[in-house]
Write a structure and sequence with these properties.
The strands form 3 sheets. Strands 3-2-1-4-7-6-8-5 form an 8-stranded mixed β-sheet, sandwiched between helices. Helix 11 links the parallel strand 10 and strand 11. It has helices spanning 6-9, 41-52, 92-102, 121-131, 155-158, 168-176, 200-206, 219-229, 257-270, 298-311, 326-329, 364-373, 394-403, 428-433, and strands spanning 31-37, 61-67, 81-84, 107-112, 115-117, 135-144, 195-199, 233-245, 288-292, 316-319, 334-336, 351-355, 359-361, 379-384, 390-393, 410-414, 419-421. It has 14 helices and 17 strands.
Length: 442
């Protein structure tokens, strides 16, 4: 890589991919393009012809067609590889993973067979992942009616006069977020699987697409959310343009409310963040894991755990030892730390709050602001004043582990209202009865 600072180190804080400016890798990266396909011979031929016209060096470009069990043989030009899985219904997530396993490039670029890229697409989309291995880039997917256009026609000529409406919701989101520079926990919704790229290193750390997705839509959003939670940066690259043959999803036949609801309901179990998950239904992955270390009186332990779960019902509390209080043992949200685990035990929560003494939480607002801060921007750790423990994001933990450095997120110290250190012998009857003053407990 050229230059110094973040370009040389490959590390920038938070989501600040803009800090590398216009820098380019000294050597074009080795790119593997995974083209997902099912029974679209004409569309595939157009996309492969467009890939052959890329300005990225041909000797640094590997094309793999991942076929989801098409009923007919797949015809490809010399030098293009085909991998195939049997037809067991819609398995886009699985076939993308199959393509990755067969690939050898350092940067992975995903395309759909009906999405033909412009000549500069690969170079533009892979620049950031080559400079910043934690970057996930999403290109600009435009739409055109290409029916009847010869498949070898150059893309710019093929789409002329045939453009269809571009999704306004995507364009608006990219404009509001400055091309996802201002990304947060919900920005996964703007990462479209047909036009994304990332480093192999990040993909391997995040894990592949979830193969339990066996209906149209959602597997890309679930993966993007998982990548974000693993410390990835999200960036929209408007110069990386690929043309989808046909209208956007909302304009296609069958794209009705039932279909949209099915996708939303499927993601509600996989993306446990506010605005995506339900409000009352218990989430499979908690948003907050509280790890209370050490030994404490039954009274202070009960008040601490109860006040946390009352204020944040989707949290879990991890203790160092089995509690003596039956009410705590019977609540599935109260767990015991395994001796070989650290932090929040086996709980892979979005935020871990580590406490070395019991606290009373009587107002959610202050702590909720901390959780929001840890979900976006550059903050990875918050130290709460008055012995209120330390809050740390999964993003910061995972990125630090992958890059073997704590550089990348800032640590701040805050006074957080609504959190009070408990005395060793709080008056439990007054607490549960609701008639004790704060001085009865702290």
């Amino acid at each position: 890589m050229t230059g110094g600072g973040p370009v040389a180190s490959g590390i920038v804080p938070g989501n600040r991919w803009d800090l590398v400016g216009d820098a380019r890798p000294a050597t074009p990266p080795r790119v593997s393009v995974i083209v997902a396909h099912y029974d679209q011979p004409d569309e595939l031929a157009r996309t492969l012809a467009a890939l052959a016209a890329q300005d990225h060096p041909a000797d640094r470009l590997e094309i793999i067609v991942a076929d989801d069990g098409s009923p007919h043989p797949v015809s490809v030009p010399a030098g293009v590889r085909v991998v195939r899985q049997e037809d067991r219904g819609f398995r886009l997530a699985a076939v993308r993973n199959l393509g990755v396993r067969a690939s050898t490039g350092d940067i992975l670029c995903f395309l759909d067979a009906d999405t033909a890229p412009e000549p500069g697409y690969i170079s533009a989309l892979t620049r950031l992942p080559a400079l910043l291995p934690d970057a996930v880039t999403v290109g600009r997917r435009r739409h055109a009616d290409l029916a009847g256009v010869p498949v070898q026609t150059p893309v710019a000529e093929a789409v002329r006069g045939r453009e269809l409406a571009e999704p306004a919701w995507l364009a608006d989101a990219y404009a509001r977020s400055r091309n996802l520079l201002d990304a947060d926990d919900r920005s996964y919704r703007y990462v479209i699987g047909a036009v994304i790229a990332c480093s192999r290193r990040l993909f391997d750390d995040v894990g592949g697409f979830d193969e339990s997705f066996t209906a149209y839509g959602g597997e890309d959003w679930e993966w993007a959310h998982r990548a974000w939670q693993a410390g990835a940066m999200l960036a929209h690259v408007p110069d990386a343009i690929a043309w989808h043959d046909g209208p956007e999803w909302a304009g296609r036949e069958g794209s009705d409310r039932e279909r949209a609801n099915a996708q939303t309901l499927r993601l509600a179990a996989s993306v446990p963040v506010s605005g995506s998950a339900g409000f009352g239904v218990r989430r499979s992955v908690p948003d907050l894991a509280v790890h209370l270390t050490g030994e404490h009186s039954d009274a202070s332990l009960f008040v601490c755990v109860d006040s946390i779960l009352a204020t944040f019902p989707h949290a879990v509390v991890v203790l160092d030892a089995e509690p003596a209080v039956e009410a705590l043992r019977s609540d599935a949200r109260v767990r015991v730390r395994d001796g070989g685990e650290s932090g929040g035990g086996a709980v892979d929560a979005r935020v871990t709050w580590t406490l070395d003494r019991p606290m009373l939480v009587d107002d959610a607002a202050g702590l909720a602001e901390c959780l929001a801060a840890l979900g976006s921007g550059e903050v990875g750790t918050i130290e709460v004043e008055s012995s209120g423990g330390v809050l740390r994001s999964r993003r910061a933990e995972r990125r630090a582990a992958r890059l073997c450095t704590e550089v990348g997120f800032t640590s701040v110290r805050r006074r957080v209202p609504g959190i009070h250190p408990l005395r060793p012998d709080p008056h439990v009857e007054a607490y549960v009865g609701g008639w004790g003053s704060l001085g009865t407990f702290v």
